[in-house]
Amino acid sequence: MPSLDFHWFLPTNGDSRDIVGGGHGTPVGSAGGLRPLTIGYLGQIARSAEQLGFTGALTPAGAWCEDAWLTTAMLTQVTERLKFLVAFRPGLVSPTLAAQMASTFQRLSGNRLLLNVVTGGESHEQRSYGDFLDKDARYERTGEFLGIVRALWRGETVDHDGKHLRVEGAQLSRLPDPVPEIYFGGSSKAAGPVAAEHSDVYLTWGEPPAQVKEKLDWIRSLKPDMRFGIRLHVIARDTSEAAWAEADRLLSHVSPDDIATVQAGLRRSESEGQRRMLELHGGSRDGLLVAPNLWAGVGLVRGGAGTALVGSHTEIADRIAEYADLGITEFILSGYPHLEEAYWFGEGVLPELRRRGLWRHPAGDAGTAQGSIPFAGVAR
User: Fold this and answer.
1) Both ends of the chain: CA-CA distance in Å?
2) What three-state secondary structure class fits 340?
3) pTM (2 decimals)?
4) Per-residue pLDDT tens over the stretch 329-361
5) Do the bridges between strand 113-117 and strand 158-161 make them parallel or antiparallel, or are there none, so unpaired?
6) Residue 380: its pLDDT value, please?
7) Long-range CB contacts (within 8 A, 24+) of 368-376
Protein backbone atom coordinates (compact mmCIF):
# COMPACT_ATOMS: atom_id res chain seq x y z
CA MET A 1 0.00 0.00 0.00
CA PRO A 2 1.40 3.45 -0.88
CA SER A 3 1.98 5.99 1.88
CA LEU A 4 -1.23 7.64 3.06
CA ASP A 5 -1.54 11.43 2.81
CA PHE A 6 -2.76 13.51 5.75
CA HIS A 7 -4.04 17.06 5.47
CA TRP A 8 -4.93 19.44 8.28
CA PHE A 9 -7.52 22.24 8.37
CA LEU A 10 -7.15 26.03 8.55
CA PRO A 11 -10.01 27.38 10.70
CA THR A 12 -10.67 30.63 8.82
CA ASN A 13 -14.12 30.65 10.44
CA GLY A 14 -12.55 30.90 13.91
CA ASP A 15 -10.83 28.64 16.42
CA SER A 16 -11.50 27.87 20.06
CA ARG A 17 -11.03 25.32 22.83
CA ASP A 18 -14.71 24.61 22.22
CA ILE A 19 -16.45 23.47 19.06
CA VAL A 20 -16.84 26.35 16.63
CA GLY A 21 -20.34 25.58 15.49
CA GLY A 22 -23.24 26.59 13.35
CA GLY A 23 -21.20 27.21 10.23
CA HIS A 24 -21.00 30.88 11.07
CA GLY A 25 -17.77 31.22 13.05
CA THR A 26 -19.42 31.32 16.48
CA PRO A 27 -18.01 29.36 19.42
CA VAL A 28 -20.26 26.95 21.27
CA GLY A 29 -19.48 26.94 24.97
CA SER A 30 -17.32 29.05 27.23
CA ALA A 31 -13.79 27.64 27.34
CA GLY A 32 -12.14 30.86 26.29
CA GLY A 33 -14.19 31.89 23.25
CA LEU A 34 -12.79 32.56 19.81
CA ARG A 35 -9.06 33.02 19.30
CA PRO A 36 -8.20 36.14 17.29
CA LEU A 37 -8.12 35.11 13.65
CA THR A 38 -4.87 36.49 12.27
CA ILE A 39 -2.29 35.46 9.69
CA GLY A 40 0.07 35.04 12.63
CA TYR A 41 -2.16 32.43 14.26
CA LEU A 42 -3.08 30.67 11.02
CA GLY A 43 0.62 30.70 10.19
CA GLN A 44 1.33 28.89 13.47
CA ILE A 45 -1.11 26.17 12.50
CA ALA A 46 0.23 25.91 8.94
CA ARG A 47 3.87 25.77 10.02
CA SER A 48 3.10 23.18 12.69
CA ALA A 49 1.21 21.03 10.18
CA GLU A 50 4.15 21.28 7.80
CA GLN A 51 6.67 20.28 10.47
CA LEU A 52 4.58 17.38 11.73
CA GLY A 53 4.22 15.80 8.30
CA PHE A 54 0.85 16.86 6.94
CA THR A 55 0.85 17.10 3.14
CA GLY A 56 -1.55 20.01 2.90
CA ALA A 57 -4.24 22.03 4.64
CA LEU A 58 -7.87 22.50 3.65
CA THR A 59 -9.28 26.02 3.71
CA PRO A 60 -13.10 26.35 3.59
CA ALA A 61 -15.22 28.62 1.41
CA GLY A 62 -18.42 30.47 2.18
CA ALA A 63 -19.94 33.59 3.65
CA TRP A 64 -19.13 32.31 7.17
CA CYS A 65 -15.32 32.36 6.81
CA GLU A 66 -12.45 34.35 5.34
CA ASP A 67 -11.75 34.11 1.61
CA ALA A 68 -9.74 30.97 0.89
CA TRP A 69 -7.71 32.27 -2.07
CA LEU A 70 -6.46 35.40 -0.33
CA THR A 71 -5.75 33.69 2.99
CA THR A 72 -3.76 30.82 1.53
CA ALA A 73 -1.81 33.10 -0.81
CA MET A 74 -0.61 34.97 2.28
CA LEU A 75 0.26 31.73 4.06
CA THR A 76 2.51 30.55 1.22
CA GLN A 77 4.93 33.21 2.45
CA VAL A 78 5.29 31.71 5.94
CA THR A 79 5.53 28.05 4.85
CA GLU A 80 7.87 26.12 2.57
CA ARG A 81 6.38 22.75 1.60
CA LEU A 82 2.77 22.65 2.78
CA LYS A 83 0.17 22.49 0.03
CA PHE A 84 -3.11 24.38 0.26
CA LEU A 85 -6.39 22.67 -0.57
CA VAL A 86 -8.37 25.75 -1.54
CA ALA A 87 -12.15 25.35 -1.51
CA PHE A 88 -13.92 27.30 -4.22
CA ARG A 89 -17.37 27.47 -5.80
CA PRO A 90 -17.67 27.23 -9.58
CA GLY A 91 -19.88 29.87 -11.12
CA LEU A 92 -19.05 32.74 -8.78
CA VAL A 93 -16.18 33.75 -11.08
CA SER A 94 -15.67 32.99 -14.76
CA PRO A 95 -13.94 29.68 -15.58
CA THR A 96 -11.24 31.55 -17.50
CA LEU A 97 -10.44 33.73 -14.48
CA ALA A 98 -10.47 30.71 -12.16
CA ALA A 99 -8.08 28.83 -14.46
CA GLN A 100 -5.78 31.87 -14.51
CA MET A 101 -5.93 32.31 -10.73
CA ALA A 102 -5.06 28.65 -10.18
CA SER A 103 -2.22 28.82 -12.70
CA THR A 104 -0.77 31.91 -11.02
CA PHE A 105 -1.09 30.40 -7.54
CA GLN A 106 0.52 27.15 -8.66
CA ARG A 107 3.46 28.88 -10.31
CA LEU A 108 4.19 31.49 -7.62
CA SER A 109 3.70 29.12 -4.69
CA GLY A 110 6.08 26.51 -6.07
CA ASN A 111 3.34 24.04 -7.09
CA ARG A 112 1.53 23.98 -3.76
CA LEU A 113 -2.10 24.33 -4.92
CA LEU A 114 -4.84 21.72 -4.62
CA LEU A 115 -8.45 22.61 -5.49
CA ASN A 116 -11.53 21.53 -3.55
CA VAL A 117 -14.60 22.05 -5.75
CA VAL A 118 -17.69 22.96 -3.70
CA THR A 119 -20.79 23.05 -5.89
CA GLY A 120 -22.84 24.63 -3.09
CA GLY A 121 -25.62 22.96 -1.12
CA GLU A 122 -27.45 26.00 0.22
CA SER A 123 -29.51 28.02 -2.25
CA HIS A 124 -30.00 30.92 0.17
CA GLU A 125 -26.24 31.38 0.51
CA GLN A 126 -25.71 31.01 -3.25
CA ARG A 127 -28.32 33.72 -3.85
CA SER A 128 -26.43 36.05 -1.54
CA TYR A 129 -23.55 35.79 -4.04
CA GLY A 130 -25.89 36.43 -6.97
CA ASP A 131 -26.31 32.77 -7.97
CA PHE A 132 -29.96 31.79 -8.48
CA LEU A 133 -29.60 28.29 -9.98
CA ASP A 134 -31.15 25.32 -8.21
CA LYS A 135 -29.04 22.42 -6.92
CA ASP A 136 -29.18 20.18 -10.00
CA ALA A 137 -28.44 23.11 -12.28
CA ARG A 138 -25.44 24.01 -10.13
CA TYR A 139 -24.00 20.54 -10.73
CA GLU A 140 -24.61 20.95 -14.47
CA ARG A 141 -22.78 24.26 -14.39
CA THR A 142 -19.93 22.74 -12.37
CA GLY A 143 -19.43 20.14 -15.10
CA GLU A 144 -19.28 22.84 -17.79
CA PHE A 145 -16.99 24.97 -15.62
CA LEU A 146 -14.46 22.22 -14.95
CA GLY A 147 -14.50 21.15 -18.58
CA ILE A 148 -13.50 24.67 -19.62
CA VAL A 149 -10.85 24.96 -16.90
CA ARG A 150 -9.21 21.66 -17.77
CA ALA A 151 -9.18 22.53 -21.48
CA LEU A 152 -7.49 25.84 -20.69
CA TRP A 153 -4.91 24.07 -18.55
CA ARG A 154 -4.16 21.81 -21.53
CA GLY A 155 -3.28 24.90 -23.53
CA GLU A 156 -6.39 24.84 -25.70
CA THR A 157 -8.22 27.88 -27.03
CA VAL A 158 -11.78 27.39 -25.82
CA ASP A 159 -15.06 28.36 -27.41
CA HIS A 160 -17.94 27.13 -25.28
CA ASP A 161 -21.62 27.97 -25.60
CA GLY A 162 -23.36 25.82 -23.01
CA LYS A 163 -26.54 25.81 -20.99
CA HIS A 164 -24.99 27.82 -18.16
CA LEU A 165 -21.63 29.18 -19.34
CA ARG A 166 -20.30 30.88 -22.44
CA VAL A 167 -16.72 31.83 -23.32
CA GLU A 168 -15.20 32.77 -26.65
CA GLY A 169 -11.53 32.59 -27.60
CA ALA A 170 -10.50 31.80 -24.02
CA GLN A 171 -6.86 30.87 -23.46
CA LEU A 172 -4.08 31.14 -20.91
CA SER A 173 -0.76 32.81 -21.64
CA ARG A 174 1.02 30.61 -19.07
CA LEU A 175 0.01 27.09 -18.11
CA PRO A 176 0.29 25.45 -14.68
CA ASP A 177 2.89 22.69 -14.57
CA PRO A 178 1.90 20.44 -12.96
CA VAL A 179 -1.85 20.98 -13.23
CA PRO A 180 -3.45 21.34 -9.74
CA GLU A 181 -5.31 18.24 -8.63
CA ILE A 182 -9.08 18.60 -8.21
CA TYR A 183 -10.82 17.25 -5.10
CA PHE A 184 -14.59 16.87 -5.33
CA GLY A 185 -17.27 15.95 -2.80
CA GLY A 186 -20.97 15.31 -3.26
CA SER A 187 -23.39 12.60 -2.19
CA SER A 188 -26.35 13.36 -4.45
CA LYS A 189 -27.01 11.48 -7.68
CA ALA A 190 -26.09 14.55 -9.71
CA ALA A 191 -22.63 14.69 -8.11
CA GLY A 192 -21.31 11.31 -9.18
CA PRO A 193 -21.00 11.83 -12.96
CA VAL A 194 -19.40 15.25 -12.51
CA ALA A 195 -16.89 13.83 -10.01
CA ALA A 196 -16.07 10.92 -12.30
CA GLU A 197 -15.45 13.10 -15.34
CA HIS A 198 -13.51 15.97 -13.83
CA SER A 199 -11.93 15.14 -10.44
CA ASP A 200 -8.76 13.41 -9.29
CA VAL A 201 -9.88 12.70 -5.70
CA TYR A 202 -13.43 12.03 -4.51
CA LEU A 203 -14.10 13.18 -0.93
CA THR A 204 -16.60 11.87 1.59
CA TRP A 205 -17.43 13.03 5.09
CA GLY A 206 -16.66 10.67 7.95
CA GLU A 207 -19.45 8.13 7.88
CA PRO A 208 -19.19 4.60 9.35
CA PRO A 209 -17.05 2.28 7.23
CA ALA A 210 -19.98 0.32 5.77
CA GLN A 211 -21.61 3.51 4.48
CA VAL A 212 -18.30 4.80 3.16
CA LYS A 213 -17.80 1.54 1.26
CA GLU A 214 -21.19 1.91 -0.43
CA LYS A 215 -20.33 5.41 -1.56
CA LEU A 216 -16.87 4.41 -2.83
CA ASP A 217 -18.34 1.47 -4.73
CA TRP A 218 -20.79 3.88 -6.39
CA ILE A 219 -18.02 6.19 -7.55
CA ARG A 220 -15.81 3.27 -8.65
CA SER A 221 -18.66 2.11 -10.89
CA LEU A 222 -18.35 5.47 -12.66
CA LYS A 223 -14.54 5.80 -12.55
CA PRO A 224 -12.61 2.67 -11.55
CA ASP A 225 -9.28 4.45 -10.99
CA MET A 226 -10.61 7.25 -8.76
CA ARG A 227 -8.62 8.13 -5.65
CA PHE A 228 -10.53 8.69 -2.41
CA GLY A 229 -10.28 10.97 0.61
CA ILE A 230 -12.24 11.39 3.84
CA ARG A 231 -12.93 14.43 6.03
CA LEU A 232 -12.90 13.85 9.81
CA HIS A 233 -12.24 15.56 13.11
CA VAL A 234 -9.89 13.86 15.58
CA ILE A 235 -9.46 13.70 19.35
CA ALA A 236 -6.27 11.70 19.89
CA ARG A 237 -4.73 11.16 23.31
CA ASP A 238 -2.26 8.87 25.05
CA THR A 239 -5.14 6.80 26.42
CA SER A 240 -8.68 6.11 25.30
CA GLU A 241 -9.98 7.41 28.62
CA ALA A 242 -8.28 10.77 28.14
CA ALA A 243 -9.66 11.11 24.62
CA TRP A 244 -13.24 10.40 25.64
CA ALA A 245 -12.88 12.76 28.60
CA GLU A 246 -12.06 15.50 26.09
CA ALA A 247 -15.07 14.57 23.94
CA ASP A 248 -17.24 14.74 27.07
CA ARG A 249 -15.78 18.15 27.92
CA LEU A 250 -16.59 19.51 24.47
CA LEU A 251 -20.13 18.19 24.72
CA SER A 252 -20.59 19.59 28.24
CA HIS A 253 -20.23 23.10 26.81
CA VAL A 254 -23.06 22.54 24.33
CA SER A 255 -26.50 23.54 25.58
CA PRO A 256 -29.84 22.10 24.43
CA ASP A 257 -30.60 25.52 22.96
CA ASP A 258 -27.35 25.43 20.97
CA ILE A 259 -28.30 22.06 19.51
CA ALA A 260 -31.89 23.04 18.74
CA THR A 261 -30.87 26.26 16.99
CA VAL A 262 -28.15 24.70 14.85
CA GLN A 263 -30.15 21.57 14.00
CA ALA A 264 -33.13 23.65 12.86
CA GLY A 265 -30.88 25.44 10.41
CA LEU A 266 -29.14 22.29 9.19
CA ARG A 267 -32.43 20.50 8.55
CA ARG A 268 -33.19 23.12 5.90
CA SER A 269 -30.01 22.21 4.01
CA GLU A 270 -30.34 20.91 0.45
CA SER A 271 -27.10 18.95 0.81
CA GLU A 272 -27.44 15.17 0.64
CA GLY A 273 -24.17 14.85 2.54
CA GLN A 274 -25.54 17.06 5.31
CA ARG A 275 -28.69 14.95 5.48
CA ARG A 276 -26.55 11.84 5.93
CA MET A 277 -24.59 13.57 8.71
CA LEU A 278 -27.81 14.48 10.52
CA GLU A 279 -29.08 10.91 10.31
CA LEU A 280 -26.07 9.69 12.27
CA HIS A 281 -27.13 11.47 15.48
CA GLY A 282 -30.73 12.58 14.87
CA GLY A 283 -30.12 15.76 16.82
CA SER A 284 -29.81 13.84 20.09
CA ARG A 285 -26.98 13.47 22.58
CA ASP A 286 -27.86 9.76 22.85
CA GLY A 287 -26.20 7.26 20.55
CA LEU A 288 -23.34 9.50 19.39
CA LEU A 289 -20.95 6.54 19.04
CA VAL A 290 -21.93 5.53 15.50
CA ALA A 291 -19.05 3.09 14.85
CA PRO A 292 -15.97 2.03 16.84
CA ASN A 293 -14.18 5.25 17.87
CA LEU A 294 -16.40 7.31 15.52
CA TRP A 295 -18.26 10.03 17.46
CA ALA A 296 -21.00 12.20 15.94
CA GLY A 297 -21.01 14.85 18.67
CA VAL A 298 -19.40 17.59 16.57
CA GLY A 299 -22.30 17.46 14.12
CA LEU A 300 -24.77 18.46 16.83
CA VAL A 301 -23.62 22.06 16.51
CA ARG A 302 -21.47 22.21 13.37
CA GLY A 303 -22.53 21.99 9.76
CA GLY A 304 -20.58 19.93 7.26
CA ALA A 305 -18.15 17.35 8.61
CA GLY A 306 -19.66 16.30 11.92
CA THR A 307 -17.85 13.16 13.07
CA ALA A 308 -14.60 12.66 14.96
CA LEU A 309 -12.24 9.76 15.51
CA VAL A 310 -11.86 9.57 19.29
CA GLY A 311 -9.45 7.31 21.13
CA SER A 312 -5.87 6.44 21.92
CA HIS A 313 -3.22 6.89 19.26
CA THR A 314 -3.28 3.17 18.58
CA GLU A 315 -7.07 3.03 18.31
CA ILE A 316 -7.18 5.92 15.87
CA ALA A 317 -4.42 4.32 13.81
CA ASP A 318 -6.54 1.14 13.75
CA ARG A 319 -9.56 3.07 12.42
CA ILE A 320 -7.46 4.85 9.80
CA ALA A 321 -6.13 1.49 8.65
CA GLU A 322 -9.73 0.24 8.28
CA TYR A 323 -10.64 3.19 6.07
CA ALA A 324 -7.43 2.67 4.11
CA ASP A 325 -8.45 -0.94 3.49
CA LEU A 326 -11.62 0.42 1.82
CA GLY A 327 -9.49 2.49 -0.56
CA ILE A 328 -9.17 5.81 1.29
CA THR A 329 -5.68 7.21 0.73
CA GLU A 330 -6.13 10.85 1.81
CA PHE A 331 -7.34 11.99 5.23
CA ILE A 332 -8.37 15.61 5.82
CA LEU A 333 -8.44 16.14 9.57
CA SER A 334 -9.13 18.85 12.14
CA GLY A 335 -9.67 19.29 15.88
CA TYR A 336 -10.36 21.92 18.52
CA PRO A 337 -8.23 23.89 18.98
CA HIS A 338 -6.46 23.29 15.68
CA LEU A 339 -2.96 24.17 16.83
CA GLU A 340 -2.82 21.84 19.82
CA GLU A 341 -4.80 19.03 18.20
CA ALA A 342 -2.42 18.97 15.24
CA TYR A 343 0.37 18.10 17.70
CA TRP A 344 -1.66 15.42 19.48
CA PHE A 345 -2.24 13.67 16.16
CA GLY A 346 1.16 14.43 14.66
CA GLU A 347 3.16 13.31 17.68
CA GLY A 348 0.97 10.32 18.55
CA VAL A 349 -0.82 8.83 15.57
CA LEU A 350 1.55 9.59 12.68
CA PRO A 351 4.53 7.81 14.30
CA GLU A 352 2.29 4.78 14.91
CA LEU A 353 1.22 4.77 11.27
CA ARG A 354 4.85 5.07 10.23
CA ARG A 355 5.73 2.00 12.32
CA ARG A 356 3.00 0.11 10.46
CA GLY A 357 4.36 1.17 7.09
CA LEU A 358 1.26 3.23 6.27
CA TRP A 359 2.78 6.70 6.32
CA ARG A 360 6.00 8.44 5.42
CA HIS A 361 6.87 12.06 6.14
CA PRO A 362 6.60 14.16 2.94
CA ALA A 363 10.08 15.53 3.63
CA GLY A 364 11.53 12.01 3.71
CA ASP A 365 13.82 10.66 6.41
CA ALA A 366 14.92 14.16 7.40
CA GLY A 367 11.35 15.03 8.33
CA THR A 368 11.04 12.15 10.78
CA ALA A 369 14.28 12.81 12.62
CA GLN A 370 13.83 13.08 16.35
CA GLY A 371 14.49 16.80 16.21
CA SER A 372 11.88 17.42 13.52
CA ILE A 373 8.89 15.80 15.20
CA PRO A 374 9.03 16.09 18.98
CA PHE A 375 8.53 12.73 20.72
CA ALA A 376 8.21 10.89 17.39
CA GLY A 377 10.41 8.11 18.69
CA VAL A 378 8.52 7.67 21.96
CA ALA A 379 6.21 4.64 22.12
CA ARG A 380 2.57 5.55 22.59
Assistant:
1) 23
2) helix
3) 0.94
4) 999 999 999 999 999 999 999 999 999 999 999
5) unpaired
6) 36
7) 368/53, 372/51, 373/51, 373/52, 373/53, 373/346, 373/347, 374/343, 374/347, 375/347, 375/351, 376/347, 376/350, 376/351
Determine the Cα angle at 76 with ends 70 and 82, to 5°: 120
Per-residue pLDDT tens digits for 210-248 = 999 999 999 999 999 999 999 999 999 999 999 999 999
Q: Across the chain, where does the E strand assignment appear?
A: 5-9, 20-21, 26-27, 56-59, 83-88, 113-117, 158-161, 166-170, 181-185, 201-205, 227-237, 289-291, 294-295, 308-312, 328-334
Q: How would you class 83 by CB atoms within 10 Å of its CB: exposed for 0-12, middle for 13-18, buried for 19 or more?
A: buried
How many Å apart are CA 357 and CA 282, to the nearest integer? Answer: 38
CB 318 within 8 A of CB 333: no
- Of 21-30, 56-65, 288-297, which gets the smallest average pLDDT? 21-30
Q: Is 158 left (phi over 0), alpha (psi -120 to 50) or beta?
A: beta
